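Page 42, continued from yesterday. The earlier attempt failed because a stray header line got pasted into the input along with the sequence. Redoing it now with the clean sequence only.
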Amino acid sequence: MNRDGKNTISVRLVDEALLGFTLSSRSAEELLRQLGLGAIDLADNEGRVDVADFSKLWRRLARQFDDEFFGMDARRMRTGSFAFVCRAAMAQPTLDAALRVALDFFRLTFEGFRGELFRSESLAEIMLSEPEDAAPLRAFSYFTFWMLLHGLACWLVGRRIPLLAVELRCEEPAYTDDYRVMFSRNLRFARPSTRVIFAAEVLDLPVRRSEQELHGFLAHAPSNILVKYRDTTSLASRIKAQLRELPAEQWPTSEALARTLCVSASTLRRRLAEAGQTYQAIKDQVRQEMATLWLADASITYADIAERLGFADVSSFYKAFRKWTGTNPGQYRSLILRGDEGP
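This time it went through. Structure tokens are written below.
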């Protein structure tokens, strides 16, 4: 247990992972001890667990209960299922075909939901269908499924696939910080359906993975698909937090920003470069984040969004949004608002 953000996840997610396996006669703490992970302190809500330890937890729970989905569905996802779906998906020519094979497999595996891939112009969405009278699942259940599917997709094409939005039927849980890092800052809860939205262009990417690469991927799973925790005290995170509090027209120049941080402009550039960032990239990341939020509100016009983000006109905003996301604001808004009407 530690309180350092790097390569860790919140202990609250450990608690969630154990929930499906704990009984009145067996506490979560007792189960952790049985699994050889008794050092994890579930009472420390601010504590963080090494990704390696969470991976051990996942593997040991799966081995003991023959379920790779934490006991969260009426049917078990038997040990070896993830390896099987990876092997089936990597035999496909494109990510589009691979995802459809994976979704077919999960449709046969789970009873509580089924996923479908839809493509609409420059956007794609994967939507989970659930029985009409079914109560929403826990957020952890939805996010675990997305982690398996999204992690597999990223590995198949050898690149990170940005998620433009993640919508869930359930209410927002008390803790979402890690989810916003793993998936997207644009999380929307209490929606009519559960889905993820991303640029459709990635569906055409070729799948080129060998059996040897699969062995390496599975040997390190799931730690290699658990996105590393973002340090909220890092320089980039502090700058983003500052920009979110200001209208775009009041965003400081790099020189003014450096002064507020009590460093020189050259030192600021160097420290950002060491983290693989630039001030311009950080500003664009915040602009994209705010744009996706405002596009989900039909009362805010494109002109209003362009002005709020500091663009000279709507055309400039459109070009920038397409550069950031691979789609245009109109198509994104149309898909988001259509989802508000329900499946």
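Notes: The CA atoms of residues 83 and 237 lie 36 Å apart.
Reminder to self: strip header lines before submitting.
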